[in-house]
């Protein structure tokens, strides 16, 4: 182990196009997608048969049989089977957190390289039996005699067969992400039009990025698709304005299907390494991870569910001594347009920064021309666990294209957590 | 047992005493059952019979590929019917011994498992296949003029029933793993995320055996059912292939009808019939076609150019279909025309093609998302390949090239689909004229595998190689041709169609007779039907360029048709009236006409023009010319190509002359009779 901390190099990312759930990827599994994006990284960087130190990956909507997802996925690639796979999950922060954990081990000298990845498909939800019936099956399986087997189904009611579907919401509040975000939007008074404009810009920037060839190395053709199928190049404020609100019947509601991310299927991966390893393998470094912070908010007791990134970023800035304006690019995951705008409003609010973030004054404004310059989740979609790796890969590419610079990453997650990181080149 | 004893096989014994037999053919990228491979297998089987292991698993040492069949190259070394039959019987004996091994056997299949590979697999107790995209099982033998000769006709009919087995063997269809499983050819599927090796171990240790045919499959091997089905199959096959030209499928049907439920007799028939077939001229011709196809495909391997995006300008019949075909091959394509309304029909046709070829709604949607209508032409700047397919007007094309050259990526390929305009008339306006090539596709694009890659003396040879590589990428066969009028295909077809018109006009020979004479020779369709299919307006255009004075009368006739709106198939009437895509023919018309000699007359200009093309250096050599004519015009494949056929005839003539024997009618083209006229 090293005495000195080493730099964490981001070599680059690879992902498959994202598709709205129950469309083109309806038959694909998490295992299919995750192994494909890991293979994508292997193909892009010539790692056929290579043993990596770690692959850290996960999925949010996952099947019980995929308990060892990361390891199983990498065994289906051409990486050496001597590569360990660690399955990790932190809701929408999954693959960013994976990258940070690999990064920390690289920095401290414990490992030389690793792939961080994430996958999700809501087209393939894990549907199970309820607890009562499952327990009957367990009893029946353990039974030795016909009588015991029979006894396992004592007082059985057909209603016990009702399947349990995974819920898309907070277990403790019983509300969905969208409903929580609607409350945030109302609390911060984010106008509907501002949300729609943000959404439209995301679509336009993503479409232009494809047309410019920006995604040529990042996105591989897969499953018959070459582009994220949620992108609307012809998105407009008028079209978005005509949509009805979907999370609340309240007259003040502002969240629609257009300014919220759709349920999406997809996966993404990113390769991280020490500088030595990169040099040994002749691989150029796109950017370095230089800071990170994970935070949580008390959403049960009325903090905004998706406000945690405000805390993570603030704490990270404090530790690094940077100001909010010291960045050339901002990648703020667009869980909802309102979430992004609430976050920006919070940083501009003197009251919030002093009271909640413990700062001396407001963090200030973010230059909107530097925000999500190649589009983000509202346009390309948001397969929960894949978004972190998508953003790291995208930002690293943006920095490489720019030659140099500093980028801020901010991702909110279910359960009221936030993950932030800084990439520099 | 030392594993280094064999050149192509490896034997390993695990801790359960199971023998793992790996075929890894030395010096080859794919496994095929050559004589050496089989003789080593014989030694291995002898050893295993004397020292039986707990079980045997057969696997391939070639990643992603199992066994692709027998070694076709060795077919050429067979010198007599007796030798062929004896070789096949030896393999039958060997495979019988494999089948009779007294311990559990299993075979694991990942990748291509064709012909002899399936035949060997059928000798095992249990077959496991990996359900990946790359796994295919099938019997392609019919395409080489024989039918499965290593016991496959007996074992497949026994395993999955005569009906299904015959369908497979007659069509040469390739099954995916899950299809093979539901047919019963394969007993177990393993997911792409699971391991064949461990499934095989389990199967062998548990002594798993294949379930064998179900009731219906068994019934189809029953004599009266066989008789009925054989009759049906004969009819269906005859509709697609003339038994005179393609005997193999009919031999298979006969064998099965007569002996379908008697294994030993089926094997005997296999050896007898296939020995005849393999030494026959059809099989020789078809093997040559296979080799020619490989030769053309190899043209595309001289460059590692790979396209991601294609831009097609002109959404007409050709442009639209070229765009759709490229999308089907996984590319992103922008399709440009003056207005959206000109692109719509192409999009509609594309949707039909995708639906037909892709079936799965997800794949169809994906394909549609990759075919992008582009009125503004924004795709030009991003494309790796630009194909111009606008109307045949040199000035219009030059204008277009002038406009787009500055927008193009410097490394992009610029190609024109022109069938008539010389390359240098188009390249003159370019800053870099050497970059322009022709990529001449044939109609219908989805069915015609040939692409003429047009070049002239100024063309950069590197561009030709890149263009050929692109053809390979989209699964087409590239054929480099010199930029001369008509290139190869149209130039040869023109006098052929012209001759037919002359005969029809001068001697009032009915059109149906002309067409029948040609199809009896082996052409896929006769010259008159061909003219209608190509389009009389197109024909007129081509004739304008190629036809000399002889053409004057016929040109007048064509012109009158065209002006009267009779354009052929596409307008519902040309020489023939067309109904539902088929010409309305008077079947009695060919009565009383010597179709053999007529066929000779018709084909004479075809052959002459082929020779002229060779003399003019339009293509590199006669093999490549044969390939072009087979894949571009469907020239009777069983004859091996026009130049090959002529050479064969020459050889036979000289043999006959020196031996002073009468060469039977059907072996002679009536060139002889014509010479005598």
The radius of gyration computed from the alpha-carbon positions of chain A, rounded to a whole number of angstroms, is 22 Å
| Percentage of residues in strands of chain B | 5-15%
Q: In terms of per-residue confidence, which ranges of chain A show pLDDT below 50 for 5 or more consecutive residues?
A: none
| Major pleated sheet of chain B | 8 strands, mixed
What tags apply to this protein structure?
heterodimer, A: 425 residues, ten-stranded mixed beta sheet, 10 strands, 16% strand, globular, B: 677 residues, eight-stranded mixed beta sheet, six-stranded mixed beta sheet, 50% helix, disordered C terminus
Folded structure, characterized:
The complex is a heterodimer of chains A (425) and B (677). With 425 residues, chain A is of the alpha/beta class. In chain A, 35% of the residues lie in helices and 16% in strands. Chain A contains 14 helices and ten strands. In chain A, strands 1, 2, 3, 4, 5, 6, 7, 8, 9 and 10 form a ten-stranded mixed β-sheet that branches. In chain A, strand 3, helix 2 and strand 4 form a beta-alpha-beta unit. In chain A, helix 1 packs across helix 2 and helix 6 runs parallel beside helix 11. With 677 residues, chain B is an alpha/beta fold. An eight-stranded mixed β-sheet of chain B has the order 13-12-11-14-15-16-17-18. In chain B, strands 1-2-3-5-7-10 form a six-stranded mixed β-sheet, sandwiched between helices. A four-stranded mixed β-sheet of chain B has the order 4-6-8-9. In chain B, helix 10 runs antiparallel to helix 11. The C terminus of chain B is likely disordered. Chains A and B meet through helix 1 and helix 2 of A and helix 16 of B.
């Amino acid at each position: 182990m090293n005495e000195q901390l080493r730099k964490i190099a981001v070599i680059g990312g690879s992902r498959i196009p994202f598709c709205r759930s129950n469309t083109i990827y309806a038959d694909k599994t998490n295992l299919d997608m995750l192994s494909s994006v890991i293979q994508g990284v292997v193909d892009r960087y010539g790692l056929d048969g290579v043993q990596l130190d770690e692959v850290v990956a996960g999925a949010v909507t996952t099947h019980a049989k995929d308990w060892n997802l990361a390891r199983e996925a990498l065994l289906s690639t051409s990486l050496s089977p001597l590569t360990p796979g660690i399955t990790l999950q932190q809701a929408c922060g999954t693959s960013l957190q994976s990258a940070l954990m690999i990064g920390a081990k690289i920095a401290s000298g414990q490992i030389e390289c690793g792939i961080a990845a994430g996958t999700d498909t809501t087209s393939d939800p894990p549907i199970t039996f309820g607890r009562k019936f499952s327990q009957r099956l367990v009893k029946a399986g353990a039974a030795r005699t016909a009588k015991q087997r029979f006894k396992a189904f004592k007082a059985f009611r057909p209603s016990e067969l009702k399947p349990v579907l995974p819920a898309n919401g907070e277990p403790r509040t019983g509300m969905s992400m969208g409903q929580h975000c609607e409350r945030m939007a109302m609390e911060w008074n984010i106008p509907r039009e501002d949300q729609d404009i943000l959404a439209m810009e995301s679509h336009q920037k993503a479409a232009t990025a494809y047309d410019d060839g920006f995604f040529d190395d990042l996105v591989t053709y897969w499953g018959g698709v070459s582009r994220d199928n949620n992108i609307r190049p012809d998105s407009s404020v008028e079209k978005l304005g005509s949509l009805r609100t979907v999370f609340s019947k309240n007259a003040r509601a502002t969240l629609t299907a257009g300014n919220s991310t759709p349920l999406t299927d997809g996966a993404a991966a990113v390769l991280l390494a020490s500088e030595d390893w990169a040099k040994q393998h002749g691989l150029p470094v796109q950017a370095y991870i230089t800071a990170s912070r994970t935070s949580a908010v008390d959403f049960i007791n009325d903090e905004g569910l998706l406000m945690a990134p405000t805390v993570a970023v603030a704490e990270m800035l404090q530790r690094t001594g940077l100001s909010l304006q010291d960045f050339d690019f901002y990648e703020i995951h667009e869980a909802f347009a309102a979430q992004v705008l609430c976050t920006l409003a919070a940083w501009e609010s003197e009251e919030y920064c002093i009271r909640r973030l413990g700062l001396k004054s407001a963090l200030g404004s973010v230059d909107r021309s530097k925000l999500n310059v190649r589009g983000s989740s509202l346009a390309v979609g948001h397969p929960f666990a894949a978004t972190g790796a998508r953003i790291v890969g995208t930002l690293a590419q943006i920095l490489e294209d720019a030659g140099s610079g500093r980028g801020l990453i901010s991702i909110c997650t279910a359960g009221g957590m936030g993950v932030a990181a800084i990439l520099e080149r | 047992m030392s594993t280094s004893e064999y050149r192509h096989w490896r034997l390993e014994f695990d801790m359960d005493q199971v023998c793992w037999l790996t075929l890894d053919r030395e010096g080859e990228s794919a496994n095929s059952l050559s004589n050496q491979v089989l003789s080593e297998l014989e030694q291995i089987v002898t050893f295993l019979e004397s020292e039986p292991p707990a079980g045997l698993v057969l696997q391939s040492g070639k990643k992603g590929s199992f066994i692709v069949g027998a070694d076709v190259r060795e077919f050429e070394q067979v010198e007599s019917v007796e030798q062929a039959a004896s070789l096949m019987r030896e393999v039958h004996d060997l495979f019988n011994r494999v089948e009779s091994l007294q311990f559990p056997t299993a075979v694991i299949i990942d990748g291509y498992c064709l012909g002899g590979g399936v035949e060997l697999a059928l000798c095992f107790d249990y077959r496991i296949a990996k359900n990946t995209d790359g796994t295919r099982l099938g019997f392609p033998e019919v395409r080489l003029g024989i039918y499965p000769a290593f016991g496959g006709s007996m074992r497949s009919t026994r395993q999955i029933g005569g009906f299904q087995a015959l369908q497979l063997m007659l069509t040469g269809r390739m099954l995916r793993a899950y299809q093979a499983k539901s047919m019963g050819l394969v007993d177990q599927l393993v997911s792409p995320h699971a391991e064949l090796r461990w499934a095989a171990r389990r199967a062998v240790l548990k002594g798993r055996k294949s379930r064998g045919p179900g009731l219906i499959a068994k019934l189809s091997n029953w004599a009266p059912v066989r008789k009925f089905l054989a009759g049906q199959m004969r009819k269906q096959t005859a509709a697609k292939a003339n038994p005179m030209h393609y005997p193999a499928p009919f031999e298979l049907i006969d064998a099965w009808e007569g002996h379908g439920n008697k294994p030993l007799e089926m094997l005997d028939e296999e050896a007898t019939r296939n020995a005849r077939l393999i030494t026959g001229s059809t099989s020789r011709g078809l093997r040559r076609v296979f080799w020619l196809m490989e030769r053309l495909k190899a043209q595309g391997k001289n460059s590692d150019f790979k396209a991601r995006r294609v831009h097609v300008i002109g959404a007409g019949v050709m442009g639209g279909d070229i765009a759709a075909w490229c999308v089907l091959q996984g590319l992103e394509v922008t399709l440009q025309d003056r207005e959206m309304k000109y692109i719509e029909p192409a999009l509609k046709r594309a949707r039909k093609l995708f639906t037909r070829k892709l079936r799965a709604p997800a794949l169809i949607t994906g394909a549609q998302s990759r075919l992008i209508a582009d009125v503004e032409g924004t795709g030009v700047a991003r494309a790796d390949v630009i194909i111009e397919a606008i109307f045949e007007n040199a000035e219009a094309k030059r204008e277009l090239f002038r406009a787009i050259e500055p927008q193009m990526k410097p490394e992009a390929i610029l190609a024109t689909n022109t069938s008539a305009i010389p390359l240098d008339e188009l390249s003159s306006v370019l800053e870099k004229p050497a970059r322009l090539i022709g990529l001449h596709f044939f109609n219908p694009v989805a069915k015609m595998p040939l692409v003429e890659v047009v070049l002239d003396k100024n063309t950069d040879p590197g561009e030709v190689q890149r263009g050929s590589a692109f053809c390979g990428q989209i699964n087409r066969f590239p054929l480099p041709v010199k930029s001369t009028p008509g290139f190869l295909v149209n130039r040869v077809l023109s006098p052929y169609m012209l001759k037919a018109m002359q005969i029809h006009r001068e001697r009032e020979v009915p059109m149906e007779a002309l067409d029948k004479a040609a199809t009896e020779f082996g052409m896929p369709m006769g010259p008159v039907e061909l003219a209608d299919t190509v389009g009389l307006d197109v024909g007129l255009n081509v004739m304008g360029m190629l036809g000399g004075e002889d053409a004057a009368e016929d040109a007048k006739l064509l012109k009158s048709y065209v002006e009267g709106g009779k354009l052929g198939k596409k307008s519902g009437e040309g020489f023939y009236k067309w109904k539902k895509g088929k010409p309305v023919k008077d079947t009695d018309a060919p009565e009383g006409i010597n179709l053999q000699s007529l066929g000779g007359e018709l084909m004479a200009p075809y052959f002459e023009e082929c020779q002229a093309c060779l003399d003019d250096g339009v293509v590199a050599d006669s093999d490549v010319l044969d390939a072009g004519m087979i894949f571009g015009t469907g020239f009777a494949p069983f004859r091996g190509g026009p130049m090959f056929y002529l050479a064969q005839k020459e050889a036979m003539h000289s043999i006959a002359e020196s031996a002073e024997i009468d060469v039977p009618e059907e072996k002679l083209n009536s060139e002889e009779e014509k010479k005598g006229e």
